[in-house]
Amino acid sequence: TGDEPDDGIPVLLEDWIKKDGLDCLKVKLRGNDPAWDYDRLLKVGNLAIELGSNWLTADFNCTVEDPAYVNEILDRLVVEHPRIYGMILYVEQPFPYELEENQIDAHSVSARKPLFMDESAHDWHLVGLGRDLGWTGVALKTCKTQTGALLTLCWAKAHGMTLMVQDLSNPMLAQIPHCLLAAHAGTIMGVETNGMQFFPAASKPEATVHPGLYRRSDGCVDLSSLRGPGFGYRIEEIDRELPEPEI
After folding, report:
1. For residue 117, what are the CA distances in angstroms to 17, 62, 78, 114, 245?
2. Which of 15, 101, 192, 216 could form a disulfide with 166 if both were Cys (CB 3.0 to 4.6 A apart)?
3. Confidence of residue 69 (pLDDT cuts 50, 70, 90)
4. End-to-end CA gap in the chain
5. Is residue 85 part of a domain?
6. How far is the C-alpha of 55 from the C-alpha of 66, rounded, in Å?
7. CB pairs under 8 A, 24+ apart, for 215-218?
8. Each residue of 161-203: pLDDT tens digit?
9. Is the pLDDT of residue 242 over 90?
10. 133 pLDDT exceeds 80?
11. Residue 147 sits in which domain range?
């Protein structure tokens, strides 16, 4: 719009790709407007091709009620834009997250692309139901508790499901167990991390000790600064001022 702050932080996707060397882009879709969703995939896909990003994921945000909605978009893509279709690593959570109340047969979608549970993956019991319905992968999130993520990881791996570690813009210390889980989980594509986009100043104290964890370079984060107990936080070196607790 021209009214953006002149603070050196990118505003446009193109600038973020160039600055951080991003190689895999999540495309947020509406799930209730097929023309808009298709056009969005084309716009982001073509920009990715132009700038050298190789992969996309398609997130329909729990709003789809009929697998045909997703299938028709994918089938049109594979015919009209096969390169962009080939760039899509997986489809994420197109259907409502209340899995038990919305037991939609998803096999036709996962026959086209890997289909990942996100909001529906509250625990490994629901992951089992999802697998029966045709879902093939699980997005792990440490914000749903580290123990829950590990238990879901174990169940999913034991039953042949693929994994991704995704975030909810993890800032400060939350970024560390998040990235560590991804480093050891065996994911389909590294780790999703976007806190440095949505609140880039929030983790400055942590970034002085772990600069590579709070900055993406060539599409990667660097965990080499982690060492010692407590996930390698090195918390005694982090000058983080916290507010007084409210009692």
Report:
1. 26, 10, 23, 10, 36
2. 192
3. very high
4. 44
5. yes
6. 26
7. 215/20, 216/20, 216/21, 216/22, 217/20, 217/21, 218/21, 218/23
8. 999 999 878 999 999 999 999 999 999 999 999 999 988 899 9
9. no
10. yes
11. 13-205
Alpha helices per DSSP H over 89-189: 107-110, 124-133, 146-158, 175-185
The whole-angstrom separation of Cα 142 and Cα 167 is 8
Q: What is the CATH number of the domain that holds 76?
A: 3.20.20.120
Tell whether pTM > 0.85.
yes
Residue 73 is assigned to a structural domain of this protein: yes
Q: Is residue 173 part of a domain?
A: yes
Distance, C-alpha 247 to centroid of its chain: 36
CA distance 144 to 122: 8
Number of domains the chain contains: 1
Distance CA 202, CA 172 (A): 7
